[in-house]
Specification:
The structure holds 4 protein chains of 4 kinds.
Chain B (H helix, E strand, L loop, with lengths): L2 H9 L1 H24 L12 H11 L5 H6 L1 H19 L2 H11 L8 H24 L1 H6 L2 H22 L5 H18 L7 H18 L5
Chain C lengths: L4 H11 L2 H9 L11 H4 L13 H11 L1 H8 L8 H13 L6 H5 L6 H14 L5 H12 L8 H15 L12 E3 L3 H5 L3 H12 L4 E2 L10 H5 L2 H18 L3 E4 L3 H15 L6 E4 H10 L9 E7 L13 H10 E4 L25 H7 L1 H10 L3 E4 L2 H13 L6 E3 H7 L5
Parallel strand pairs in C: 1-2, 1-3, 3-4, 5-6, 5-7, 7-8
Helix pairs in contact in C: 1-8, 4-5, 6-8, 10-12, 12-21, 14-15, 16-17
Chain D lengths: L1 H8 L11 H18 L3 E4 L9 H9 L5 E5 L3 E6 L5 E7 L5 E8 L10 H15 L1
Antiparallel strand pairs in D: 1-5, 2-3, 3-4, 4-5
Helix pairs in contact in D: 1-3
Classes of the chains: A alpha/beta, B mainly alpha, C alpha/beta, D alpha+beta.
């Protein structure tokens, strides 16, 4: 497929009718969490948009993010969006390997310098550069080199966005996020472990449609998808408000679909689109399947206390501290109290008799 | 320190430090009072001092008519913020979970909209008592730095809790962190200030009622 | 001539015990006690807020008996109580507190503020900050036996007068009598009718009683000024006389502080329980009434109300007895708003009446009583404390109110059945 | 309305009610009113609204079926059903795997997608021309 084609032309070449294109735009608007009325705007923009070159780098990661995006074999809408871009380098997906692959990356960079989109999944080790290398190039060097010519960077997955699991305490590799290392490029974080696939493509679609990066929150995430917490959009929220909670995974409350807060749900502090966009083509999401939210789209979710510990419970053993404190307090209190008592008794003992002659001041 | 590290520090070590200061401080201050003791009363009792003491612990929860009429605002606003504070503290689900986790006991929660409304009423009552403290000539006269400090450390947990509940001002994680931090401040300040009345008022009422009870006076 | 700041602070340290510590720990500075104190309500001056009157003592407690206070003191961060401060507090502790105990009834955390004022006066007296009037009264009490300087001959003269009027013998120094009557100097000098009334009632009731020539004074200036050893000496005189006459009971007369002194503080001051029982005269009358030994032939028809002397009712526990007696003697008995244990003080108790400096203030705060009386509009006002009576008469005169003040005992005596 | 309210809010045992069905129906009512008054059409994206298991079904049940049903095959199948309230359409887009990729309620005379698009007509004409020559 020629890179000079617009997206509209590319789709038509694939035999997609105008009606199909409009349907695609409606679905895309929904995917981008834009109001449905935006579909014609998207259509007009995509019609003319050039297919951008995309370079995808994978560092310390599990390939889950790529899996999330590509798990479907048939041309889904996300797939189509993906197909309309020119994925010039993705070492998991591309056929080329070794030097040829690196050559493709260098070629794409040179050809589209300043214009390509860099997608990163995985965190970057900042400790020993040997912790993770590709074709002998350390992750850090490759990121710096590739980022230099990018128009924008999309950090896909929590590892790239915030360090993720490699960054978890004690962080043996010194894993860092893209935004820790690159500061002179617009970076869009698409966290999640993995992120919802339509969110990844939604961000790409936004870039394709408007040529700009979407509005971001203070953690660098697109507000359109991460603007509201799981808790706020959760269909089980009414139970939280009524105080109806599942206490265990197999009690009546769990069967009735009551709130999972007490089972450690991190929904209240987690910002993601799971509760409305859902997973597997809108089938369901973890809470709907009866499992508390882990908070995977938040920084350091791995270190945020136990997954099954309620959010409000302390991470430390307060009980033991309190027990020791009572003991220490009792000992100190009795000691200080005894000192008080002794002082008071001594005062009584040393009392100088006050007679009627002592009622006026001496000289 | 990343935000979550800070958050975990606040929920972990900081909470432990605050708990330590709070518990040691409260126990010390209670014992400091109790161990001081008092002399046995040698006068012939007309009534039971113990019964009087116990009765006064309860009866002082209710103001006499004259006080209610003369200080209606002070009494009502005082009631509202005390009850509101305790309701939000003790009957909000996340708080109950905290107690269940640290004390091993739990009890039923109130619906969150009720807690939400209670918090608003309590905040208003607290602001009202502050304004009252500043405007009322006796209260202004009696008040010193400690009184305003105690007001602040009582107000902050409610305010930050309310913000955290509604996810405003800061992002919720940070707001919860600030909320917990404000509670820790409350706990640290507690043993050194008049907040101790939470515990010592039972002793004070008992002693007062005991003195009166022996004389056959109902207080 | 050896009063000093050191002695004062020493006395305060000595006075602080668990109740005081719990009270100071509990105060939240809500100010509700102000509205319970007539010195505040009638002047509107916040310095008369009861808990504020204890500020120097509170600081001593904080610096000496709390861990962080000791800590701050060790670091030199706390401000020691100065002699000037104690001097500044003198009028608050003596002139504007009658130890009436009303604040102790309303404090929401349960502080017995009156109990602490009583203790604080120990420090004030030891540091030389007791009012002149009280110092004089105390000296007279110790040297002469009466704060007003009433000597035995004066009493004997009054007794002779009473005997002449009633035709009854007033027993003096009768060994083995059941009851020994105490009197306040005010009764001897201003209300000798009281002695006659008691004589008549006890004669009708066939109660064996006596007056001791060695200890007839019931009041105790040592308590009002706040010097426990002087108070103890005064109590000891009564104990010795009672032991000498081998009486089973001692009657406290119609005087509030006298009752407090001998009934509740007495045994604690002398350091051992009494071998005799102490009753307030109204308690005795009520017992006689219950036994059927107190019978009346007529009732008072005018509209009466009863003023509770603070130390008799609120601080003494004699609350229901006067009401039963009032019902017995009065056809038309109306309570004032806020009566019984919530009664308002007349304004002159707790040594205030012995302190000339406080004269204007006590008359100013009498407005509270005036308002209470205006709510009831009685024909006459009955009470059971000679000190209250004198001040009530003063106050009523000052505010141009024509309400006679009666003694409950005397009123009962007037209606005794002859049989 | 009672019946609708019943269908819309009464969950069968074990079902979860978010309470979002009734507000959607009200939104539809306002949109229908606007359509009559001003001719303005509206689209509601059902994927942006939290729904518990079974709630979408109850919404569909509350809307019922009207006279028109359109099946489309363009980039996967689509289903456009007029509800029992004329002018209210339930539009569901599927991909080629029959997975739902979009679900909307449209309030309009006829959803724009049903109408043949100029571009497609033009392409069809070319095709027909080719066939006839």
């Amino acid at each position: 497929m020629s890179k000079d084609l617009t997206i509209g032309e590319a789709l038509r070449q694939r035999g997609v009718s105008r009606r199909g294109f409009l349907k695609f735009c409606a679905a895309t608007a929904s995917m981008m969490a834009l109001p449905p009325g935006m579909a014609p705007v998207i259509a007009a923009a995509l019609e003319k948009a050039r297919r951008p070159s995309v370079i995808w780098l994978s560092f310390q990661e599990c390939t889950g993010c790529t899996e999330s995006l590509t798990r479907s074999h048939s041309p889904t809408v996300e797939g189509l969006i993906f197909d309309t871009i020119s994925l010039d380098y993705h070492h998991t997906l591309q056929a080329a390997a070794g030097d040829a692959a690196e050559a493709a990356r260098v070629a794409a960079m040179e050809e589209n310098y300043g214009n390509y989109i860099l997608v990163v999944d995985g965190s970057i080790p900042t400790g020993n550069p040997g912790f993770s290398t590709i074709a002998g190039i350390s992750n850090l060097d490759m990121l710096r080199e590739t980022a230099a010519g990018a128009a924008a960077i999309v950090s896909v997955g929590t590892c790239a966005a915030y360090g993720g699991i490699p960054h978890a305490n004690p962080n043996p590799t010194g894993a860092a996020s893209v935004s820790d290392l690159v500061s002179d490029k617009p970076i869009i974080n698409v966290p999640g472990c993995p992120p919802i696939p339509v969110v990844i493509t939604g961000v790409l679609a936004h870039y394709l449609t408007f040529g700009t990066i979407p509005e971001l929150d203070d953690l660098g995430r697109p507000r359109a998808h991460y603007g509201q917490s799981i808790h706020d959009r959760c269909y089980r929220r009414p139970f939280y408000d009524k105080g109806l909670f599942a206490e265990t995974f197999d009690d009546e409350g769990a069967k009735k679909g009551w709130c999972l807060y007490k089972l450690g749900c991190k929904g209240p502090t987690t910002y993601n689109a799971c509760a409305t966009t859902k997973w597997n083509e809108g089938t369901s999401f973890p809470i709907e399947s009866g499992h508390p939210c882990l908070g995977c789209s938040e920084p350091d979710f791995w270190d945020g206390g136990g997954f099954y510990k309620a959010l409000s419970t302390p991470t430390a053993d307060i009980t033991r501290t309190a027990v020791y404190a009572v003991g220490a307090g009792a000992a100190a209190g009795i000691a200080l109290g005894a000192m008080n008592r002794t002082k008071q008794k001594r005062m009584a003992k040393e009392h100088e008799k006050v007679t009627i002659d002592d009622l006026e001041k001496g000289d | 320190m990343s935000e979550i590290e800070l958050f975990n520090w606040i929920r972990g070590p900081a909470l432990q430090i605050a708990t330590l200061i709070f518990v040691v401080g409260v126990v010390v201050r209670i014992l400091e009072v109790l161990v001081l003791g008092r002399k046995q009363d040698l006068s012939e009792a007309r009534g039971s001092g113990v019964a009087g003491g116990l009765r006064t612990i309860i009866s002082r929860m209710f103001p006499d008519r004259g006080t209610l009429q003369r200080s209606t605002f002070n009494v009502i606003a005082g009631y509202v913020f005390h009850v509101g504070f305790l309701v939000t503290l003790l009957f909000y689900t996340p708080h109950i979970l905290l107690f269940r986790d640290s004390l091993g006991v739990s009890w039923p929660a109130l619906p969150t909209p009720v807690i939400d409304a209670t918090a608003v009423v309590t905040l208003i009552a607290l602001i009202a008592v502050l304004v009252h403290r500043i405007q009322h000539k006796v209260m202004r006269f009696l008040s010193g730095f400690q009184d305003y400090l105690v007001w602040l450390v009582t107000f902050l947990p409610l305010l930050t809790g309310y913000f955290a509940f509604h996810r405003v001002v800061l992002d919720p994680q940070a707001m919860i962190a600030v909320h917990i931090l404000s509670v820790e401040l409350f706990m640290v300040v507690f043993p050194f200030t008049k907040l101790m009345h939470t515990f010592t008022l039972f002793m004070a009422r008992y002693y007062n009622g005991h003195i009166a009870g022996r004389r056959g006076v109902k207080t | 001539m050896s009063a000093s700041l050191e002695k004062g602070i020493h006395a305060l340290k000595e006075q602080i015990n668990a109740p005081v510590a719990s009270f100071f720990s509990s105060c939240v500075r809500c100010g509700l006690c102000a509205e319970a104190c007539l010195f505040f309500t009638e002047t509107g001056n916040p310095k008369y807020t009861p808990i504020h009157k204890l500020e120097p003592m509170r600081r001593v407690w904080q610096q000496e008996y709390t861990f962080w206070g000791r800590f701050a003191k060790a670091l030199g961060l706390s401000k020691p109580v100065t002699d000037k401060e104690l001097g500044d507090w003198e009028t608050l502790v003596y002139d504007s507190c009658t130890l009436c105990g009303r604040c102790s009834m309303v404090c929401p955390v349960g502080n017995d503020i009156t109990y602490m004022i009583r203790k604080m006066r120990e420090g004030m007296a030891a540091s030389g900050h007791a009012p002149e009037g009280l110092v004089g009264a105390t000296k007279l009490a110790v040297t002469v036996g009466s704060p007003m300087g009433v000597k035995l001959p004066a009493l004997q003269a009054q007794i002779r007068q009473v005997e002449a009027e009633t035709g009854l013998k007033v027993p003096v120094n009768v060994e083995g009598a059941d009851y020994m009557l105490l009197l306040s100097s005010m009764e001897i000098m201003n209300f000798p009718e009281f002695i006659g009334a008691v004589a008549k009632i006890l004669d009708k009731a066939k109660v064996s009683w006596t007056i001791s020539s060695e200890a007839f004074e019931a009041t105790n200036s040592g308590i009002q000024i706040g010097v426990s050893e002087i108070a103890a000496e005064l109590v000891q005189r009564i104990v010795d006389a009672a032991d000498k006459l081998k009486v089973k009971n001692v009657i406290s007369p119609e005087c509030g502080h006298a009752y407090m002194a001998i009934r509740w503080e007495g045994p604690n001051l002398v350091g051992k329980p009494f071998s005799f029982r102490v009753v307030h005269v109204l308690e005795l009358l009520d017992e006689l009434r219950a036994d059927g030994r107190l019978k009346l032939s007529s009732k008072e028809t005018q509209r009466l109300t009863y003023h509770d002397p603070c130390q008799v009712s609120r601080r003494g526990g004699v609350v229901d007895q006067p009401r039963r007696l009032m019902d017995m003697v009065a056809e038309n008995f109306d309570e004032m708003p806020e009566s019984g244990t919530m009664n308002w003080c007349c304004g002159a108790g707790g040594g205030v009446s012995s302190n000339e400096r406080a004269d204007d203030l006590r008359l100013q705060v009498f407005k509270r009583k005036k308002a209470q009386l205006e709510a009831v509009k009685p024909d006459a006002l009955v009470s059971a404390c000679s000190n209250c009576r004198i001040h009530l008469e003063d106050g009523l005169e000052k505010y141009g109110m024509d309400i006679p003040v009666l003694s409950l005992t005397e009123t009962i005596a007037e209606h005794l059945a002859d049989e | 309305m009672d019946e609708i309210a019943h269908t819309a809010t009464c969950a069968s045992p074990g079902e979860v009610v978010t309470g979002n069905v009734m507000p959607i129906l009200h939104q539809v009512r306002h949109a229908l009113h606007d359509l009559l008054e001003t001719g303005k059409s509206e689209v509601i994206d059902l994927r942006s609204i939290p729904m518990g298991p079974g709630e979408e079904g109850r919404l569909a049940e509350a809307l019922g079926k009207g006279e028109v049903e359109v099946r489309m095959s363009a980039l996967g199948p689509s289903e456009i059903i007029e509800t029992r309230y004329p002018g209210v359409w339930l539009v569901t887009h599927f991909n080629n795997d029959n997975e739902i990729i979009g679900k909307f309620i449209e309030i309009c005379a006829i959803p724009g997608l049903v109408m043949a698009q100029d571009e497609d007509i033009r392409a069809g004409l070319v095709q027909l021309n080719e066939q006839l020559t």
